Amino acid sequence: MKVGLFIPCYVDAFFPEVGVASLELLERLGCAVVYPLDQTCCGQPMANSGCQDDAAATEAHFVRCFQDFDVVVGPSGSCVHHVRFHLDATEQTPAARKVRASTRELVEFLHDDLKVAAFPWATFPHKVGLHNSCSAVRGLGHERPSERVGDPFFSKTRDLLGVVRGLELVEIDRPDECCGFGGSFCVTDEAVSAKMGWDRVHDFHRHGAEYIASADMSCLLHMKGVIDRLGLPLKVIHIAQILNGAAA
Amino acid sequence: MMRAVDPEARAARFIALEEHESTHDRVVWGMRQHRDKAVAGVPEWEKLRELASQIKEHTLTHLDRYLEQFEENATRLGTHVHWARDAPEHNATVYDILQAHGVRSLIKSKSMLQEECGMTPYLEKRGITVTESDLGERIQQLSHEPPSHIVVPAIHKLRTDVAQLFAREIGSDPGNADPHYLAEAMRGNARPRFLAADAAMTGANFAVAETGGFVVCTNEGNADIGASVPPLHVASIGIEKLIPRARDLGVFIRMLSRSALGTAITQYTSHFHGPRRGGELHVVLVDDTRSERLGSPDFWHALKCIRCGACMNTCPVYRRGGGLSYGATYSGPIGVILDPGFDLEKYRELPFHSSLCGSCTEVCPVKIDISDQIYKWRRVVAAKGMLRLTKRVGMSALGATLGHPTAFHAAESVSETALAHLPRFALYNALNPWGRHRELPAVPRRTFRQWYLEHRAKSGD
């Protein structure tokens, strides 16, 4: 299976280690992974602001970069959510439809497609708070959303982290409350965004987490900004890094 | 272009009142938790949601038929039925009815529709005294503020705010912020107004086509006293409130208060079938942009709303910024998708007052795709050229950069150099909202792409 590695623009620029961890992890699991060098972004920043015209060229470029792969895997719930559900500023050619249907977020690819049951190389002896992003929970279905109280509980992210040696998950008061990142929302609605981030990191801190782990680096970028400003003893880490055996 | 409501600035002012914001978030989140508990007690909840959604969709797609059926049956019961195309027509109709009966004072229970129509100021300008009888609405009326929440209109206030307000307005003890004392003080003040009123006005939660009756749900019984004391009762009903049969009520009544406050049912669920003996009952059926919305493929589902407020309670943005930040009759996620339909220019910023977390869609008892509609309203705002200038310019520059790999990689190295080398005061200032409450990320030595070129591409991958 030929896997195209989709590294979102902000991960490329700010968190290369998350890209490296994703690549190495997929290779350890036997995938033939190629990173198309011309890729830029999925178009979400423009489309989320309503700017379909401005998103069109970026989305068309995304389709061109990934149209030859059996599956496209990216370590970001929000970007994958955009590709699958919202990438419609560009013409819906057969290539566009194929790319949209075959783009997978890393957690769901590991859990649903590769059905990975063990990460023998991974040890992470820490208390970890899990932050599933809104696009991952309510968009892609990584976990049963808290609103659906009557439905049976499931969590793909917990299933994966649960087999990592030494890792202890801590429970928090509001399991899937938004952290307040929200793309350009984090600057246009700065006061609300920052307060949401403040409340979110305190929820983790109050319950003894040493790390906040997530499949979305954008949420973590925002929460890390809050943590550093407040000087809290909390660290953030992408799930790909833990599963790839990051020594903390 | 008309000046738009600025929800972000309003929310920032509310957040600056630290105790108000933290109390509001805690109390409103508490309602969401109560909702979760109540929903857990109904194993068929998701089936009920689906059923409620289907009943509403069916009714809305056959609305002409059900409206006429309602009119016919209501008239048979002795109810006077009036039709109003828009808010001015509604207000004029109500005023005509009141004037014909020589009404000088009016006791009203909660009605978002009357709020939407701006009815109270309209009537007061014409010499009619209007008294809100719902406690929260009365607090808002005395504060000269619109309701900040559909169900709990004064939830953004602290007890101490209410104590101060009542001391000023009705002479209670300013130092006593005990809720029971305050409620009792207002009860003492309101009773004579109920007795003196010449007419009562209510809204309606549901209007039943097959019976011609309508249902009003309250927790204070205020609509019932109002409708039982003066001889004249006028109810304003939005045309989307129709349901086909009395038996359909069972679905909605089970969901309404569970979604709103987490109680099994409201304290009072009152059914009105024609005028009471010796009295007169008027119903005003109001369109006010509803039929226009019904014709919109993207937005007509918003008409399914039963005004429970669950989307507000769960919304992290609403809980932090408060309901008044929306500057509109309807606040919270449902307001974000309803208000632009009334006045796009005025409410063009509301669809951006959302992190698109999607929780509203999940709690909605009638399965309105609220979050998707917020996203679609953003497209409407952008397509009409109504985006804020900074956003418009920023997005087209971003689109131009991200659409072309060489431009993107050049921009990446510039911004990384800037982040790494600019002094702190250049990065953390009033022009950079990110830095007000957050640190910027550290800049890595190289991008992932550069790492890949060094480690993989060279070896012939």
Description:
Chain A folds into two domains: 112 residues; 117 residues, 3-Layer(aba) Sandwich (Rossmann fold). Chain A has 248 residues and is α/β, with parallel strands linked by helices. Chain A is globular and about 50 Å long. With 461 residues, chain B is an alpha/beta fold. Among the domains of chain B are: 247 residues, NagB/RpiA/CoA transferase-like (Rossmann fold, 3-Layer(aba) Sandwich), CATH 3.40.50; 69 residues, no CATH class. In chain B, α9 crosses α10 and α16 runs parallel beside α18. The longest helix of chain B has 23 residues. At the A-B interface, α1, α2, α3, α4 and α8 of A face α1, α2, α15, α17 and α18 of B.
Strand and helix map with partners:
The complex is a heterodimer of chains A (248) and B (461).
Chain A (H helix, E strand, L loop, with lengths): L1 E4 L3 H6 L1 H13 L3 E3 L9 H5 L3 H15 L4 E4 L2 H10 L7 H9 E3 H8 L13 E4 L3 H6 L16 H6 L6 E3 L14 H4 L1 H17 L4 E4 L2 H14 L4 E4 H5 L5
Parallel strand pairs in A: 1-2, 1-3, 3-4, 5-6, 5-7, 7-8
Helix pairs in contact in A: 4-6, 11-12
Chain B lengths: L6 H10 L1 H23 L4 H17 L1 H14 L3 E5 L2 H14 L4 E4 L3 H5 L2 H7 L3 E4 L2 H8 L16 H12 L8 H18 L2 E4 L3 E3 L4 E6 L3 H7 L3 E7 L3 E2 L5 H12 L7 E5 L7 E7 L3 H5 L15 H5 L1 H6 L10 H11 L16 H5 L6 H14 L5 H14 L2 H17 L2 H4 L6 H4 L10 H10 L4
Parallel strand pairs in B: 1-10, 2-3, 2-4, 4-7, 5-8, 7-10
Antiparallel strand pairs in B: 5-6, 6-9
